[in-house]
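hiii so um. not sure if this is the right channel but i have a protein structure encoded as C-alpha cells and i wanna go backwards to a sequence. like what aa goes where. can anyone help
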C-alpha cells in the first residue's frame, strides 16, 4: 500500500480577512465591517507605498470598516508607508499622495459612531500605538533631510 504524496501547505495570504470586501448588510441595513462584522461601517480604501530605488510597490485594503478596525488599518498602512515609502526618487511625489489619501479615508471612518459588535462575529483589530508614536515614523525625516540637503546645496552654489 502506498500512501498519496503529501500535499504542500497552502500559501499564506498577506491580508486574508474573514469577510468579503463588500460585506453584507444584515439586521441593521447598514454596511458591516469586513474585519469584525460590526456596524456602522464606511466604504474606504487604505493604501501603502514602498519605494526601492527604481522599484515601486503598492498595496491596498478596500472595504467597509468600522471606526476601530479602520483606525487599526490606517495606523498599520500609514506607519509602513512612512518608513518604507521614501527610498525612491519617485516616492518623494507618490508617498505624500498615499499619506494624504489614507488621512482622508481615516476622516471618513472617524465620523462613524462607536461600532456595535456583531453577535458571534470575530473580534475587531486593535488600533495599537498612534502613528507618530511609532519608531518607524522617524523615517519620515528622510524627505525633510533630503530637502535641507538640496536647499543647502543650491544656496552654496549660488554664493
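sure thing!! here u go:
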Amino acid at each position: 500500500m502506498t500512501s498519496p504524496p503529501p500535499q504542500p501547505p497552502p500559501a499564506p495570504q498577506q491580508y486574508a480577512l474573514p469577510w468579503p470586501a463588500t460585506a453584507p448588510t444584515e439586521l441593521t441595513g447598514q454596511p458591516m465591517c469586513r474585519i469584525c462584522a460590526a456596524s456602522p461601517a464606511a466604504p474606504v480604501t487604505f493604501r501603502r507605498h514602498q519605494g526601492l530605488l527604481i522599484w515601486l510597490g503598492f498595496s491596498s485594503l478596500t472595504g467597509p470598516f468600522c471606526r476601530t478596525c479602520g483606525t487599526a488599518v490606517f495606523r498599520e498602512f500609514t506607519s509602513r508607508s512612512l518608513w518604507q515609502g521614501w527610498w525612491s526618487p519617485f516616492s518623494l511625489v507618490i508617498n505624500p499622495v498615499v499619506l494624504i489619501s489614507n488621512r482622508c479615508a481615516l476622516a471618513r471612518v472617524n465620523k462613524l459612531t462607536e461600532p456595535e459588535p456583531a453577535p458571534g462575529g470575530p473580534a475587531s483589530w486593535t488600533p495599537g500605538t498612534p502613528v507618530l508614536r511609532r519608531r518607524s515614523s522617524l523615517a519620515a525625516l528622510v524627505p525633510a533631510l533630503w530637502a535641507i540637503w538640496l536647499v543647502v546645496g543650491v544656496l552654496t552654489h549660488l554664493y
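oh and The longest strand covers residues 42-52.
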